[in-house]
């Protein structure tokens, strides 16, 4: 058997090698009567070494290819598991980052709200008498909605500071005040703080003002 034939044999597919090995085993180990019937009895005697070599080579190649196939399958499985794990870790990092950003946003909003509230409380604690006078209409009357002059600059400042806000977007001309007015509501935080500290709506220098017809 020349080297070229051996190399060609080694290149045969696994199924062919398995068939050759099985055929060689049959020739070597089946009863002589069966082998004689096929005319291979002399071949078993004269080429026993070649048949044995074919069996061993075929078996070795089948084992090697089996191990290689198993190794390839295991590597592919490992790669899939690694990719799956990386994907899960990426999703976990993304979720953690999202939660962190949401927490930071909530903290930022809470800080802004706290700063706004602190600024509002500082403002109402240092209000001028005209501003105290307007706020007193809510605290003393315990009304949630009070008609105020929409053109009054003091009212406008209280709205800008978030102490008051228009209850509706409708304004109308009041014949008693001879001015455009609207219903205003005091913000809850301002009402709670002023109710807890009624001295903040005490006007130091009472000013004369026309009576609100809704207070009559």
Descriptive report:
By secondary structure, this protein is an alpha+beta fold. The chain has two domains: 3-74; 126-215, Arc Repressor Mutant, subunit A, CATH 1.10.10. The protein is 67% helix and 9% strand. The protein has eight helices and four strands; from the N terminus they run ααααααβαβββα. Strands 1, 2, 3 and 4 form a four-stranded antiparallel β-sheet that branches. Helix 2 packs antiparallel against helix 5 and helix 5 packs across helix 8 (188-196). Mean pLDDT is 82; it is low at 207-216.
Features:
single chain, Arc Repressor Mutant, subunit A, 2 domains, alpha+beta, 216 residues
SS elements, strand count:
4
| Assembly classification | single chain
Task: Please indicate the count of domains.
Answer: 2
Order of helices and strands: HHHHHHEHEEEH
Number of helices: 8
What would the average pLDDT be, to the nearest integer?
82
What distance separates the N and C termini?
A: 126 Å
Structural class: alpha+beta
How big is the Rg?
Answer: 49 Å
Overall geometry: rod-shaped
* Percent strand: 5-15%
CATH topology name of the largest domain, in short, is Arc Repressor Mutant, subunit A
CATH class annotation of the largest domain: Mainly Alpha
Give the proportion of residues in helices: 55-70%
CATH architecture of the largest domain: Orthogonal Bundle
